[in-house]
Design a protein that fits this description.
heterodimer, A: about 375 residues, alpha/beta, Beta Polymerase, domain 2, Rossmann fold, 2 domains, B: about 290 residues, mainly alpha, two-stranded antiparallel ribbon, 2 strands, about 75% helix, about 0% strand
Chain lengths: ~375, ~290
């Protein structure tokens, strides 16, 4: 009897189907991932498999010759064994799909449509890394290899030709983007962070990730400042001394819990007088505000507060979401075209009876 | 249409294509296709240079003898500066700005046939210095034109950042610091070229005072003083940013207005200059 061509199945959990606690319990260490791959390689009927593990999802894409329901059960059991997470509890929060629906889901995941932050770009790199891990373990059969190659092409197309990745949607990245519109290259910009609150930390880390180094950090809480210095490769400035550093700074990030204005218009005017032709970018993340609003009226001074940054982020997010439907439609068409060429000898998708609802009504 | 004129019109259309490609990409919120735009600008520049060369050969002088030729020469200067400045600063949008400016100047010059009816053969009477003076003066006008365009970009970027209005199309603009640096460089280079041009003119005036015309002398000297003051204030950091950008844009309008005085001086002077001949040109369709 001729062997059945492999079908593609998916089993997984993500931010929409499972709580953070569950996702933490299911997250795979390097050893667990190795263990999972070796078990997958030994499982009858599994011809290939790719395990995608990120902070928001864990998914297994497999090429199987066993019936879809059986294969999904096997994959869930393997995940349960490796993570020691009860299989019954896993089945309550997991989703599954086969054939075309699994392909469509993969396309959407790689393009960032299924991400918590729609359009985020890191996910494509994570999918590629997972693909390489499977390839190194020789767990990619021909159809699965083709599926992932086509997925990368489709995801790249979506980023280039639709607005899903347009504009920054986090406060830190919005601030960085504005700084780039003012200064161009950021590594040369002298940056001062006053305060070490949560939002300030995020913004400082966003700047550090874009090449800003030797960031001066002034905080009343020495431990937090020290921690930020390590995270951003910065340096500590005494909280009493930061006003002296102001005229030399290009970017000032304020995130203190002070109840009064820390930097008045006069202080900014005095600082800008000493470097009149160089712009000064003030980012006020504090509530109540640390910087006098009128300072933004000064020539060559650009002042943005938390609400301003949030408004830009929200506007960008709205723009991305408006592009999602069009993008999803095209990706589905591409997935269908791929399915017709790699589908296991059939013109139409496999019956979806084996599917278990994907979160966010992904299956359409 | 004669080959030289045809080539210059074609070049203007190529520049217009480069500008349209960039604006089209911006309208779709996409990054402008830098290499294509740069390639088109280079092609247009080659065609325009050929056209100007042919015209120069036919009139036996640098082709800046009538309004059509002057506008074409300024447009050519804008692109010449971009080819070097754009490469140094890697500013994609500058290509579109230069191409737009060159296309507008080129197509405007071609839109009024009367501007090209009179061709002054041997305009400079074989005097290389006068010809060099005129060519350098118009080259500096091209640089000031590009300076005005980059100043407008600065104003757009500054307005967007100050007013917190962030149309996504503006994200492709160069940064404020980059535009400020480009503006300073263009201002300095433009002023230097203009100074050399005027220096040659003054040297010539000492030898032949009647050859330099009062209105032209007054307007161009005023322009030179104005740019000199602006450059001095910028270097001393007394004028920068938004105000500098406004001054650059307004000064270029003044520079364009001085072209009228240059042209008027030429017309006034023509009967007294035996070396100057005019060659009326008929266009297809003229009766």
């Amino acid at each position: 009897m001729p062997e059945t061509p492999p079908a593609i199945v998916l089993v997984g959990v993500n931010h929409a189907s499972a709580s953070l606690a569950v996702r933490e319990a299911l997250s795979l260490s390097a050893g667990q991932l190795e263990d999972l791959y070796s078990r997958l390689a030994r499982t009858d009927g599994v011809r290939g498999a790719v395990v995608l593990g990120t902070c928001n999802r864990i998914e297994i894409y497999a090429a199987v010759t066993t019936p879809a329901d059986t294969a999904m059960g096997q994959l869930e059991s393997l995940l349960s064994v490796v993570t020691t997470f009860p299989v019954e509890a896993l089945r309550e929060v997991s989703y599954g799909a086969t054939g075309l629906d699994a392909l469509r889901h993969l396309y959407r995941v790689a393009a960032g449509l299924d991400s918590q932050m729609v359009g985020e770009t890191e996910i494509l790199g994570q999918v590629k890394a997972s693909y390489r891990q499977a390839e190194e373990r020789k767990l990619l059969d021909k159809p699965l290899h083709r599926v992932f190659q086509k997925t990368f092409q489709a995801a790249k197309w979506a980023r280039t030709h639709t607005g899903i990745a347009e504009g920054q949607v986090s406060i830190g990245n919005v601030a960085v983007e504005l700084a780039q519109r003012i200064f161009g290259d950021l590594p040369a910009a002298k940056t001062l962070l006053i305060g070490s609150g949560e939002v300030g930390r995020d913004v400082a880390k966003a700047f550090a990730s874009r090449g800003v180094h030797a960031m001066a950090i002034a905080s009343r809480t020495h431990e937090r400042a020290q921690c930020l210095v390590e995270e951003t490769d910065g340096r500590i400035v005494s909280f009493e001394e930061w006003p002296l550093a102001l005229p030399d700074c290009d970017i000032v990030i304020c995130a203190t819990s002070a109840r009064h204005v820390l930097i008045g218009k006069d202080a900014v005017a005095s600082a800008i007088r000493r470097r009149p032709a160089r712009p000064l970018f003030l980012i006020d993340l504090a509530v109540p505000r640390d910087i006098e609003a009128e300072a933004g009226d000064l020539s060559n001074v650009y002042l943005y507060n938390f609400a301003d940054l949030a408004e830009i982020a929200n506007e960008n997010l709205r723009r991305r979401q408006a592009a999602v439907e069009a993008c999803r439609h095209v990706l589905d068409e591409r997935a269908s075209a791929l399915w017709r060429s790699v589908g296991p000898g059939q013109e139409t998708p496999r019956p979806v009876a084996a599917n278990r609802p994907l979160p966010g009504s992904i299956v359409s | 249409m004669e080959p030289d004129r045809l080539l210059m019109v074609v070049a203007a259309l190529v520049y217009a294509c480069a500008a349209a490609l960039t604006l089209g990409a911006l309208a779709r919120r996409r990054a402008p296709p830098h290499q294509v735009v740069f390639g088109l600008v280079l092609i247009g520049f080659g065609i325009q240079s050929t056209g100007l060369h042919l015209r120069g050969v036919s009139i036996g002088a640098c082709p800046i003898g009538n309004t059509f030729e002057v506008l074409q020469f300024i447009s050519w200067s804008v692109i010449l500066v971009y080819v070097f400045t754009g490469a140094v600063y890697r500013v994609t949008i500058l290509g579109a700005v230069s191409a737009t400016l060159a296309a507008v100047l080129g197509l405007t010059s071609a839109a009024v046939p009367a501007w090209d009816e009179t061709r002054r053969v041997g305009l400079f009477g074989g005097n290389v210095w006068v010809e060099t003076h005129a060519a350098m003066a118009f080259l500096s006008y091209g640089i000031f034109g590009l300076l005005a365009a980059t100043s407008v970009l600065f104003l757009l970027q500054n307005y967007s950042l100050k007013k917190k209005r962030w149309p996504s199309r503006l994200r492709f603009l160069p940064s404020v610091v980059q535009l400020e640096a480009i503006n300073l460089r263009l201002l300095a280079v433009g002023f230097a070229v203009f100074t050399v041009a005027l220096g040659i003119a003054f040297t010539h005036m000492l030898v032949n005072p009647s050859a330099v015309f009062s209105i032209k002398l007054l307007s161009t000297t005023l322009l030179w003083i104005a740019y000199g003051i602006v450059l001095s204030l910028r270097i001393r950091q007394r004028l920068f940013g938004r105000r500098l950008a406004w001054v650059n844009a307004v000064l270029f309008l003044f520079a364009l207005s001085t072209l009228w005085s240059v042209e008027a001086s030429r017309k006034d002077h023509t009967p007294e200059e035996p070396a100057v001949q005019t060659a009326p040109v008929r266009f297809p369709g003229d009766s």
